[in-house]
Design brief:
Elements lengths: L42 H7 L4 H9 L43 E3 L7 H4 L27 E3 L24 H5 L5 H32 L3 H31 L4 H31 L10 E7 L4 E4 L10 E6 L4 E5 L2 E7 L12 E2 L2 E2 L7 E3 L3 E2 L8 E13 L2 E8 L6 E4 L5 H13 L6 E3 H15 L13 H12 L4 E3 H20 L3 H6 L9 H8 L6 E6 L7 E6 L6 E5 L12 H7 L5 E7 L5 E7 H4 L25
Parallel strand pairs: 1-2, 4-14, 17-20
Antiparallel strand pairs: 3-5, 5-10, 6-12, 7-9, 7-12, 8-11, 12-13, 15-16, 17-18, 18-19, 20-21
């Protein structure tokens, strides 16, 4: 199944709708009179007295004052939350130079009036965690970021919230997990979500009020609405900056990452609609912005960034564009909406020709939404491409008609491939563009970890909201230590060296028969070193084995097993002709070898703890094994032992 069919838009996973939101818990705050300049909309009460100060919250959670300006590349740019405190530096875990320990304490204390329904799930926790990222015994795997909340109704964050790599011997039961305190970034996401719901209602009221003002202008109403729009604009910018800082400075699990990305997308739509209203008021004040400042096309849904196969056609629901207009724009005529593929084809040879089909679609005049079931007719020659949409719109003003071309922003990047051999390089191109999207030469590790998680789940055809198996904090800790030496900032050169190894592993998981399923079901552990393997097999009986990716041979599997009655742990490098495409798979090879009897499968044991569970191989491999094939013996490899004949 093509991965594009695996990833419905993030909105549906949170019961969100493009135009109607089901949560109403904050609507009672609307319409309050508090004299803050937004009294007509109750805005001040929501974001002031009844909500948290997002700038302060994000600054205190995700800013590390111990970092110095000279620690960072001059080309890096990090978001500012307000004029007083600019976040120019990403935080990093404080580490002991000798043992690489990380010690984190998250403290939640008193502040102003957080709604009780947010805090009902917050429990009292305070935990300092030490982790040696060079040693993982892999007995259990779960990120247990915790902080202390001394008052469930009030809070203030007085310490930095970091990405935490917890000791691999940390275990938990499902019951314990559900009782975890909300992490700082989750509190922030919940609060911004409440603001986003409320701001949608505020924008709708502004739209209606402005329509009346445009018909019967009054200076008092004009000034009031102008002030309200300025305040709302600043608030949306503040929320977007807080989301960006969270993404860049905190390594978070997929469901929270999905919620963050959805909130960012929806707030950007709100920001665009607000800009149109502001421009319209400027026009009323005789500043006369052009027509294309009073209407805009926005990309409402998109499946990108993603690697797409040639001849693949999107569904109508995957790519949607919406027309936004100002309150009093008198639209006389609109054209069809046109999609243009933007791609640097200078590296290729010959003419490109038509690359997409279904690139002209009609707008639904009721919803002002247009759907694009595009079909990709040619590859982009391993170069990232984008799509931009445009349409002609004619409106009446002062008895005259005027026509303008309305353009959208560009889509997220994608690459169209013509065969699976191009996937590894193309996926690496997209991940690199996502990670270093603003042209930075270096980015915080946590930003890279979030980008890697997002692309990994797309490549393995899992949903962000409910993945079967994502990159755990232990997986990320291994990769961070092995390929980045636990550095706080990741350079483009670091990325290139990493992808040279990781890209081949991803290609195997995505395309080699059974490997993707084996990964998701824990039969293939994947990312661990020899020390961790030896610890996992310690005291295991003869024939017990673990499957992982070889650290030195990119894209090849290594099997560690207890080889004899003396419990000596041996390592075997699976050779290319141990498997033969679909005729003889890795499970077939493992099933044939008498040396391997019990597979250590990553999952939950009978006590609900995460770790390795020993399974007889004939049971673990039964869903994958085909007909028996003759055994092939291969030459020895440095560091690996041949299997006996």
């Amino acid at each position: 199944m093509d991965e594009l069919e695996e990833y419905p838009d993030v909105r549906q996973h949170f019961d969100f709708n493009n135009t109607v939101y089901i949560e109403e818990e904050f609507l009672g705050m609307l319409g309050s009179e508090n004299g803050d300049g937004m009294s007509g909309y109750g805005f001040g009460e929501v974001v002031g007295q009844q909500g948290i100060d997002i700038s302060k919250f994000a600054y205190e959670n995700f800013y590390d004052p111990s970092l110095k300006e000279e620690d960072f590349n001059a080309n890096n740019s990090f978001p500012s939350f307000n004029s007083d405190k600019s976040i120019n530096n990403p935080p990093h875990p404080s580490q002991n130079a000798n043992n690489n320990q990380q010690n984190h304490s998250f403290i939640m204390e008193n502040s102003q009036n957080l709604n009780q329904n947010v805090n009902n799930g917050i429990q009292n926790h305070n935990q300092n965690v030490n982790n040696n990222s060079n040693q993982h015994n892999h007995q259990g795997f779960q990120n247990q970021n915790q902080f202390k909340n001394q008052n469930a109704a009030n809070y203030n964050v007085n310490n930095t919230s970091q990405s935490v790599f917890f000791p691999s011997n940390t275990t938990f039961t499902p019951q314990q997990f559900t009782q975890q305190a909300l992490q700082a970034h989750q509190v922030l996401l919940n609060e911004i979500h409440r603001h986003q719901i409320d701001q949608k209602d505020i924008l709708e009221r502004m739209f209606q009020d402005q329509r009346k003002i445009m018909l019967e202008p009054k200076a008092e109403d004009f000034n009031r609405l102008t002030q309200q729009q300025k305040q709302l604009k600043l608030k949306i910018e503040e929320e977007l900056n807080a989301l960006q800082s969270t993404h860049d400075n905190v390594s978070i699990d997929p469901p929270d990452l999905q919620k963050l990305l959805w909130l960012k997308q929806d707030l950007e739509v709100q920001q665009k609609q607000l800009d149109l209203l502001i421009n319209e008021l400027l026009r009323l004040a005789n500043q006369d912005p052009p027509l294309n400042c009073l209407a805009s096309l926005i990309i409402l849904k998109q499946p990108f960034p993603v690697v797409i196969s040639k001849s693949k056609q999107l569904t109508e629901e995957q790519l949607q564009v919406q027309l936004l207009i100002s309150s009093n724009l008198q639209v006389q005529q609109i054209s069809s909406v046109r999609a243009t593929l933007l791609c640097d084809t200078s590296q290729g040879k010959g003419s490109v020709g038509k690359m997409i089909e279904g690139d002209i679609q009609n707008l639904n005049t009721n919803t002002r939404i247009v759907k694009f079931p595009l079909k990709f007719l040619a590859g982009t020659k391993k170069v990232a491409a984008n799509i931009r949409f445009e349409m002609d719109i004619t409106s009446a003003s002062s008895g005259k008609n005027s026509t303008a071309i309305i353009e959208s922003n560009t889509s997220q990047p994608f690459v169209v491939i013509t065969n699976e051999c191009q996937w590894e390089g193309s996926a690496g191109t997209l991940l690199k563009k996502s990670t270093f999207s603003a042209g930075q030469l270096q980015v915080p590790w946590q930003r890279f970890a979030n980008c890697l998680q997002f692309h990994f789940l797309k490549a393995t055809k899992q949903e962000l909201n409910n993945p079967r198996r994502f990159l755990s904090q232990t997986d990320l800790a291994f990769l961070h230590s092995k390929f980045f030496e636990n550095k706080h900032l990741i350079s483009q050169k670091d990325f290139d060296d990493f992808w040279e190894w990781f890209g081949k592993a991803m290609q195997k998981i995505r395309y080699q028969r059974h490997i993707g399923s084996m990964w998701q079901n824990g039969l293939l552990y994947g990312f661990m070193g020899r020390d961790e393997v030896n610890a996992a097999l310690h005291n295991q009986p003869q024939g017990a084995f673990v499957i992982r990716f070889s650290e030195r041979h990119a894209g090849q599997f290594a099997i560690a097993y207890v080889g004899d009655s003396s419990h000596k742990i041996k390592h075997y490098l699976v050779q290319p002709n141990d498997t033969s495409a679909s005729r003889r798979t890795l499970p077939d090879f493992l099933d044939e070898r008498r040396e391997f009897t019990s597979l250590l499968v990553f999952g939950r044991n009978s006590e609900g703890k995460l770790g390795f569970v020993k399974n007889p191989k004939h049971i673990a491999l039964e869903p994958y094994c085909g007909k028996k094939q003759p055994t092939v013996q291969e030459d020895d490899e440095l560091g690996y032992e041949p299997l006996p004949s």
